[in-house]
Amino acid sequence: MRYVIAIAETGGFQRAAERLHMAQPPLSRQIRDLERELGVALFHRRPTRLTAEGHVFVKHARSVLADVERAVAETRAAAAAGSVTGVVRLGCGPMSGSTDTPRLVAAITAKHPGIVVEVCESWDTALASALIAGDVDIAVGWHLAIGGELARRLLRREPYVVVVADGHPLADRGTVALSELRGETFRFLPRRFAPNYYDAVLAALRSSGEDFRVWENPLPGLRHFGDIRSDGFHLLPASIGGALPAGLTCLTVADEIPPAELEMVWRPGAGRAVEAVAAMARLS
Questions:
Q1: Could you tell me how far CA 128 lies from the centroid of its own chain?
Q2: In angstroms, how far is the first alpha carbon of the chain from the final one?
Q3: If pLDDT is split at 50, 70 and 90, which confidence band does 34 have?
Q4: Which of 57, 112, 155, 266 could form a disulfide with 138 if both were Cys (CB 3.0 to 4.6 A apart)?
Q5: Interatomic CA distance for residues 126 and 189, integer angstroms
Q6: Nearest residue to 19 (alpha-carbon basis) of 51, 27, 32, 34
């Protein structure tokens, strides 16, 4: 591409060869080989001038070379600044995916513009398998239980809130004791999707001394909270309350119960980009 542009700008093979600091015969051979590969003539000879096809080639060649030069310059600038580059595959659970993951990706992009984050969302059991198998580099979720040679960090502890329908008798209370929900059904996700989270939430409920009948929603997830609108209640980490569908109310829990724990788990030694993202995690 540089050879063709040089010939077009100088108006001749010899002058182009001088500009390129090379002999004219090798330059002529390169152009003949290129024309043979393309199946078109790029130049009229005697006098040397671009053909119609040559004009098209030069137009795109200039654009391609400009992009290449820009890529080289930006890459060198990033290296000079000590920037970290690479792809990080971030797995998240459905609940952290609606709240914390978008904020984390925005923070990563702001601090490390050379890192590309690819996000995949799945339930905890599938997330654990993907991390151990190396299909994702980092996992973020509530009460993650993932074994293997992995590093982990607690990102945040926060209280649970009770979720009820707007029409629930206690919906306008603001704060509720779990004893006031006695006799109601606790509507939850099936344990097989997130066993550690499931056990942690039920343990928090039972620490109040109350025991509730549990109904497992066959369509789990924040998009399917409509079942609460009939009766019963749910328990969620407080930060997720703002991501709920309309028609639901979050109530502060008056009882002293164990908090929810948001965790990050990652594969150590997976590269500078992964370590840079993991280093951003702080308890808050």
A1: 17
A2: 54
A3: very high
A4: 266
A5: 15
A6: 27
Same structural domain for residues 58 and 147?
A: no
**How far apart are the C-alpha atoms of 163 and 4, rounded to whole Å?**
69
Cα dihedral across residues 230, 235, 238, 243: positive or negative:
negative
Give which of 175, 143, 148, 145 is closest to 162, Cα–Cα: 175
Here the tokens at position 19 are 């500009």
Pair (275, 249) in one structural domain = no
Q: Are 18 and 12 in contact (CB under 8 A)?
A: no
Joined tokens for residue 79: 């290296």
- Counting the structural domains of the chain, the total is 3
Mean pLDDT of 37-66: 94
* Per-residue tokens: 3: 């050879």
SS3 at position 27:
helix
Do residue 145 and residue 272 come from a single domain?
yes
For the entire predicted model, the pTM comes to 0.66
Residue 44 CB neighbours (<10 A): 11
The CATH number of the domain where 220 resides is what? 3.40.190.10
Residue 218: is its pLDDT beyond 90? no
- Range of 14's domain? 2-80
Q: Quick check: 112 and 84 in contact, CB under 8 A? A: yes
* Other C-beta atoms lying within 10 Å of the C-beta of residue 77: 10
What's residue 284's pLDDT?
Answer: 45
pLDDT (average), residues 71-99: 77
275 and 150 share one domain: yes
Q: Which amino acid is at 179?
A: S
CA–chain centroid gap for 166, Å, is 33
For 139-167, write each residue's pLDDT tens digit: 998 998 776 678 888 888 999 999 998 88
Q: Tokens 């100088």 sit at which residue?
A: 10
Cβ 40 vs Cβ 25: under 8 Å = no
